[in-house]
Amino acid sequence: MGNAQKKPHSRGDGGPHTDTSNSHHGPWRGKGGTSDKYKVPEESKEKVANGSSKRGSTASAQGDKGTTGGEKAKETVNLDTPCGALPPHLSRLKNEGNLLFKNGQFADALEKYSQAIQGYTDSGMDSPEDLCILYSNRAACYLKDGNSQDCIQDCTRALELHPFSLKPLLRRAMAYETLERYRKAYVDYKTVLQIDISVQAAHDSVNRITRLLIEQDGPEWREKLPDIPLVPLSAQQHRREDPPSQQVLQARAEKASRDAERRAEVRFTALKQEGNDFVKKGQYQEALGKYAECLKLKPKECAIYTNRALCYLKLQRFGEAKQDCDAALELEPDNKKAFFRRALANKGLQDYLACSSDLQEVLQLDPNVQEAEKELEEVTVLLRQSLSSATQDKPRKTVAITEVDGEEVMTEAPNSESSCTGDNISINLKPSSAYEFGQSLNASRCCGNTAACAKLLTSTEPELLPQYLSNQLDGHTISFIVKALDSHLLEKKPDLAYRHLDQLHTADRFRVALMMLEKDERRYVTQLFERLSAVESAEFTKDDVQNLANKYI
């Protein structure tokens, strides 16, 4: 990091920001390299700005020699020592500034650094690290002269050129502290400690400023701090020396993962219990928040989705309740609670068909769920009301039934004056489309002619029945077909009757239409299957009939 990294050349003698790789000219690093190297006593800020510690550095030692014999000191300093990538005349300016700074001539040193900075700019060269050091050194001069504002400005420029350079950060922190801008000073000191945890001056300053911030901002002082930047590992000097082995890193990662899992499990259990407690108290909105936090920790926990769905139902947020139940069923396809609560959500959304389907799933999983039985009875009534309001019976007409090829003509007497009035209508007993089949079926049902319906079914392949009925199927149609099969086909052609029943339940809207059957109509269905099960046939067995009956009864 800037001055903290090794360079191919020395940085000159005795300046406030010399290369730390040069042990003879680095006022920031003591010979021992101990944690005292950045220690800054409160009573003396001179040594902080200059970078020397109580233990002393080679530069400070040279400064002492200079006080006893100025001529001798001058002889030991080579002002033409190369400084990084700077050209000779700029290196000399920098070295002159370092010497003047060491001798306490801060204004003159500042001038030399300013000239070097200007020369760097005029030269058009590209060496951000050298320019960073020049700004950092000039900032040290400003700090010595009590010009904290310009010190901060130069340190900021240096950090823009070389992010996370330690000395500019430390000097800017001191300038902020001088201006009583304690929050920013705290952030810079903490950043310094991320780079090098052994900087004692930063530790002392953090402790001192912490007490000031507590007095100034109270217990919540941390919340008022600016964000502390995260220093990358590459800039953390105290972690560079002995990088951990791959095995150590893997062990640390595994331990961290186990610790995180344990913490997450404890947190999850606590949040779930808090959510359950809120539900018991009827505080469903508060419970939603707890369950949402649970799902952040365990997004595949089915019970949390069903619990949250219950809260949504209580708050009449049916769409969200349905979504949570869908998520739960993706995780556990046989979850009774999810089916039941989704049924309630669909009921709230007035999707009675979907509600009925979910309730039947519940009862199939567990026939003893009385709540599902009650809800199914209620939603069946609602579904009938919904369908009856959407579709009304059309006026009935007198029907004449005729074979299309002219071989047979059959006329049925009307059941009532209201249902068999109007023009005679021919019934096509060999339909070739869903439209023709529907016309013939409606015509025969108009006057209750089950014989004509039976003839229509006889001439129609059972596999075509679901296609022909399409979306026109309703409870009355099912009842009429059942009566026709029972009265006319069962005795003569039981195999054909079975095949029609086996195809009928696959038609669209069959389950909805089946729910519309009245009590007497259901009795006809039961009677048909009882008689069919007594038939001896090579095409089907009693077990086949029983399995098929489960689709109807």
UniProtKB/TrEMBL annotation:
Transmembrane segments: none annotated. The gene is SPAG1. InterPro entries: CiliaryAsmbly_MitoImport (IPR051982), RPAP3-like_C (IPR025986), TPR-like_helical_dom_sf (IPR011990), TPR_rpt (IPR019734). Its main location: cytoplasm. This is Sperm associated antigen 1. Residues 50-61 have a biased composition (Polar residues). GO terms for cellular component: cytosol. Keywords: Cytoplasm, Repeat, TPR repeat. Residues 34-48 have a biased composition (Basic and acidic residues). Residues 430-522 form the RNA-polymerase II-associated protein 3-like C-terminal domain. It holds the Pfam family TPR_1.
